[in-house]
Structures are given as structure tokens and as C-alpha cells.
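call fold(seq) -> C-alpha cells
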Amino acid sequence: MDVHLIFSYVCPTFPSLSSSTLLTLFPHSRFMKSLKAHSIPRSTLPYQAPFQPYGSWFALVTVAIITFFKGFDTFTPFNTANFITAYIALPGITSHYSCHHDKLTKGIRTVFFFLWAGYKIYFRTRVIPVNEVDLVSGKREIDEEEQAYLDLAEKMLKAGEKKSVWSRMWDWV
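ret:
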């Protein structure tokens, strides 16, 4: 198998995966801290993932380290051109030494970073302290809607009505 073929799949995939993982794990870890700050037990959540909150922090640190050191071979022997090529895209939360042809992915990540940073600066937004995060607004309405749906489903089941194929497929999703 041609190595270039493997890199053509790995190069665009890893930056996307690492970016989406990092951008998911940080808010999740903040959510977990907010639950703790508001004394809301995890047992009240509909799903409790194992190894939390430590699993999220472990994954966050691990992915960040892997993303940062992905271009480690630029250091032995140190080559300025290769170092710049490997790490020029770090502001876009991506780097890969072998992906010289993957300018579009690096460009997208860099554009995302600058749009995000520009938004934060222009609108002067801040990271909300965990004890100020609102975890209860709208919860009553959501619980009422869920209960109405469950009541309707139970009513249909008792009446012997069969769900359509599309309805069963939607429920599966």
C-alpha cells in the first residue's frame, strides 16, 4: 500500500478529529464543573458516562499533547522550514508535518480560530464562571414536553396503534 495514500486520508482527518474533540471536551468539562458548583448530582442526568469528570480531562490533555507533538520529527534534526510547516497551523488547532498539500484544512482551521477570536473580542464575551452558569432555565418546559410525548406514546401503545415506519425510524435516531 502506498504511504501517500494513507497520508491523504490521515492528513485531513486528524486535524478535524482533534479540533472537534478539543472543542467538545472543554465545554463538557465546564458543564461538569457547573453541575458540581450548583450541587446538582450527576445521577439526575439521563446518562452518566463512566470515568467522569476525569475521563474528559484525560482526553483533553491527551489530544492536546498529541496535536502539539504531531510534528515532533521537525526537532531531530531541527529544521526551521519544517518546523514552520508543521506548526504554522497551530492557531487553527491543527498540525501535521506530512500534510504539506493539506492547505485547505489548515486554512479552514485558521479561519475558524480567527473568527472565534474576533467574535470574542468584538462582542467582549467571556467564559462564564461555573457558579454563574444557568442550568435550570427552560428545564420545566422541556420536562413538560417530554412527559407529554411519553403520555402520548403510552396512549398509542394501549390503544394498539402501530407506529408508521417513518415514526419508528425517527424514534431510532
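The chain has six helices and no strands.
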